[in-house]
Amino acid sequence: MRITRPPRRLALLGVTAAAGLSVTALALPGAAGAVTPHPERPTIVLEHGAFADAASWDGVVKRLQRAGYPVVAAANPLRGPANDAAYLRSVVDHIDGPVVLVGHSYGGTVISQAAVGLEDKVKALVYIAAFLPDVGESSLGLTNKFPGSTLGQAIEPVNYTLPDGGQGADVYIKPDKFHRQFAADVPADKARLMAAGQRPIAAAALEEKSTKAAWRTIPSWSLVTTEDRNIPVAAQRFMSQRAHARTTEIDASHAVSVSSPDAVTRIVEKAARTVR
Fold first, then answer.
1. CATH code at 132?
2. Which residues, 6 or more positions from 88, have their beta carbon under 8 angstroms from its beta carbon?
3. Which N-terminal residues, if any, form the signal peptide (predicted)?
4. Is 269 exposed, middle or buried (0-12, 13-18, 19+ CB in 10 A)?
5. pLDDT tens-digit profile of 194-221?
6. CA distance 1 to 54
7. Considering the domain boundaries, does residue 156 fall inside one?
8. Is residue 167 part of a domain?
9. Cα-only R_g, the chain
């Protein structure tokens, strides 16, 4: 199935999970336009990827809440698949009832690892312009497996030293490259805000190999972005086909949750409607 990008709409509302907490995004009682979550609907947990933050889901959160879904937009530490998956599992553990996990970009790597062993609770996986790694694969390795990514020319590492003497490097997209590289179909003023607030990823996280692959046991959906300059479209198609994911393609940039929240919401709702 293939769809073209719908008209852009202003993203108005987002909710993040504070560090150490899981927060269900609910409309406040009495608020204008408030919607009470449907008691039989699964909780949607949204995991952002590198160079973004939980606010990148704002437009999707707004639409899912309006449809009556409880939503959590989790804060991804971006330190490595094992670390980040453990954190996401702690968020899921504090949610009652069934869950649909949604991962964007590197967030796909995280949900693939986090959901293993939680099949009784996590009923569907949704990959949005995301990695669907198998055991032994890394995000960087999958990116380099196919031509098309220009991310290498747009990023800049920043070295750091921790109080205990530990050292490492975080990776950012250069602000002057961000719009074209990450969010070409997002208005320029919005892209500048995204560039300023981007969350860096540990360089080592992109090379860390996955040890689990939940898409092997949990039904999966995938939204492939054909104008993506981060993850080659051929890589997205390869991973989606291998996982037997129900796949939709859209002419959009890597920042599809910002530029096309309607399309992202539709595929999340398709997955959610299968949950019983």
1. 3.40.50.1820
2. 45, 47, 74, 76, 101, 110, 111, 114
3. 1-27
4. middle
5. 999 999 999 999 999 999 999 999 999 9
6. 28
7. no
8. no
9. 17
- Domain total of the chain: 1
| Structure confidence at residue 40 (pLDDT) | 80
Residues 6+ apart with CB under 8 A from 23: 15, 16, 17, 72
Structural domain includes residue 174? no
Q: Are 48 and 193 in contact (CB under 8 A)?
A: no
Query: Residue 74 belongs to what domain range?
Result: 2-144+210-272
DSSP code of residue 32 = T
Residues 6 or more apart from 173 whose CB is under 8 A from it?
Answer: 51, 151, 154, 155, 156, 181, 182, 195, 198
Under-70 pLDDT residues of the chain: 1-39
Packing angle, helices 175-182 and 188-196, rounded to 10: 120
Q: What is the pLDDT of residue 162?
A: 84
Asked if residues 263 and 252 have their Cβ atoms less than 8 Å apart, the reply is: yes
Token representation of residue 136: 């032994």
Residues 6+ apart with CB under 8 A from 231: 105, 129, 130, 131, 142, 143, 149, 225, 254
pLDDT number for residue 166: 86
Round to whole Å and give the CA distance between 120 and 187. 41
How far CA 16 is from CA of 118, 178, 274, in Å, comes to: 22, 23, 26
User: How far is the C-alpha of 253 from the C-alpha of 233, rounded, in Å?
Assistant: 10
